[in-house]
Amino acid sequence: MATTRTFSIIKPDATRRNITGAVVKMLEEAGLRVVASKRIHMTREQAEGFYAVHRERSFFGELVDFMISGPVVVQVLEGEDAMQRNRDIMGATNPANAAPGTIRKELAESIEANTVHGSDSDENAAIEIAYFFKPEEIVG
Ligand code: CMP
């Protein structure tokens, strides 16, 4: 299995509760390495651009409002099959459906305040990484 990269966001519900370290610990214990990380407060424009694929969804406005409600931590994660590995440790989008031991089951508050975002394909990972990071900011 190849070493690959994926993109992760620790969302405002986690920065508000001061549990970003707990999230990173679970990512690291799942075999992922943080090779880039920065704490930012997204602008509305940035959040709308990032979630543009969801623009027609009923929850788009609330999603953007939530993502700009506080700081987030954007990260690049590296590991064997990083995208799938990250999705496995994140758990289902809705914490009510997430498996025990996953980040969303253990830490998330709701389907909106669900603590983490992770890319859903290697192609989207590359796009999402480039949206927030310059190549020289990624130190593997
Ligand atoms: P994320 O992986 O960041 O991608 C889109 C986000 O929309 C998703 O996680 C959820 O947190 C959020 N969201 C809010 N409401 C819904 C909903 N009803 N269905 C799916 N996703 C939702």
Automatic annotation (TrEMBL):
Active-site residues per Swiss-Prot or TrEMBL entry: 117 (pros-phosphohistidine intermediate)
Cofactor annotation: Mg(2+)
Primary subcellular site in the record, as a coarse category: cytoplasm
Annotated InterPro entries: NDK-like_dom, NDK-like_dom_sf, Nucleoside_diP_kinase
Assembly with partners or alone: Homotetramer.
The protein's name: Nucleoside diphosphate kinase
GO terms for cellular component: cytoplasm
Recorded GO MF terms: ATP binding; metal ion binding; nucleoside diphosphate kinase activity
Gene: ndk
Pfam families: NDK
Family: Belongs to the NDK family.
Stored PROSITE patterns: NDPK_LIKE
Domain Nucleoside diphosphate kinase-like: 3-140
Swiss-Prot/TrEMBL keywords: ATP-binding, Cytoplasm, Kinase, Magnesium, Metal-binding, Nucleotide metabolism, Nucleotide-binding, Phosphoprotein, Transferase
One BP term from GO: GTP biosynthetic process
Location(s) in or outside the cell: Cytoplasm
Gene3D superfamilies: Nucleoside diphosphate kinase-like domain (3.30.70.141)
Physiological role: Major role in the synthesis of nucleoside triphosphates other than ATP. The ATP gamma phosphate is transferred to the NDP beta phosphate via a ping-pong mechanism, using a phosphorylated active-site intermediate.
Reaction catalysed by this enzyme: a 2'-deoxyribonucleoside 5'-diphosphate + ATP = a 2'-deoxyribonucleoside 5'-triphosphate + ADP; a ribonucleoside 5'-diphosphate + ATP = a ribonucleoside 5'-triphosphate + ADP
Catalytic activity, EC: 2.7.4.6
Bilayer-crossing regions: none
Highest taxon above the source species: Bacteria
Residues reported in the UniProt entry to bind ATP: 11, 59, 87, 93, 104, 114
Alphabetized SMART domains for the sequence: NDK
